[in-house]
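Hi R.,

Here are the chain sequences for the assembly we discussed:
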Amino acid sequence: MTAAWAAVALVGLATMAIKAAGTLLVGGRTLPPRVQAAMEHLAPALLAALVVTQALGGERGGFAVDARLAGLAAAAVAVAFRAPLLLVVTVAAATAAIARALG
Amino acid sequence: MPPSAGSQRPPGAPGYLDGLRAGAPIGIAAFAFGVSFGVLARSAGMGQLAPVVMSLTTFAGSAQFAAASILGAGGGVATAVAAAVLLNLRYGPMGLSAAAALRGPWWLRALTAQLVVDESWAIAQRDGRIDRHLLVGAGLALAAGWVGGTAVGALAGDLVADPASLGLDAAFPALFLALLAGQVGARSRLLAAVGGAAIALALMPVSGPGVPIVAASLACLVGAWRP
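And here is the predicted structure of the full complex:
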């Protein structure tokens, strides 16, 4: 087996196990109220972290400031005007593309 | 709701099609990045079939990019696998939060959980919980784009312009920001968001990629805290 296939198999098995762990461990049981309350706060916590890492993350860790930030700023304006999701995403991509084209 | 109504959706609740529709625009971005992943993975010596199998089984963009670029740089299998697994650890807490929404026998729930990626999980949020229909619909839209894009990139090469030149890399933080805006009405949720962002920002300069996001999930504990 080549290195590539070994990596594909190991990463695939590990990722499938990680993704399935929650439902296999918890099953259909209802979580204790405090755990459930924490889970209901997972979305804002992780979404905020994803915004930060996806807008500012460098390829090998650390920070990288580039046209993504202009796109995110434009998206923030669109969100403030209660634009639909598709428009927010399009505005962000178009702004970043223009910012990059302008260099 | 009576227990027998578990499979009956209340009127107005989202269905699979709503999930597909919500996931479609991001699925297009995922397609473009799938093409780049296919091209990168092939040039990293992974061949043509392995990248497609990886997109189908791993189905997590950042981890796949990390693994392929480490292999391409001669970093070795162990390093590539470790980096990818670290990036995917966040699917532990995400999968746990999705658990209550999944139905059916264990194998079906485990299979449905594979559709959890950042974007589908974010789109599927409804009132602090995951909506299974949105998760499945958006997950399938993203998977179609990602796997299809990988196949095009690995088999045919770079037919699509560089996604970054199209600004598509800015589409993802914008999506998460738009979905976040609908999440922070209550004060404790705003606190969780601020906490998550602060943890991520603090760790980004000092840790490898992946760690800041997993650590940020700890900010959800503000929900369990009661004075």
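The first strand of chain B starts at residue 125 and ends at 126. Chain B touches chain A through 100 residues (CB under 8 Å).

Let me know if anything looks off.

Best,
T.
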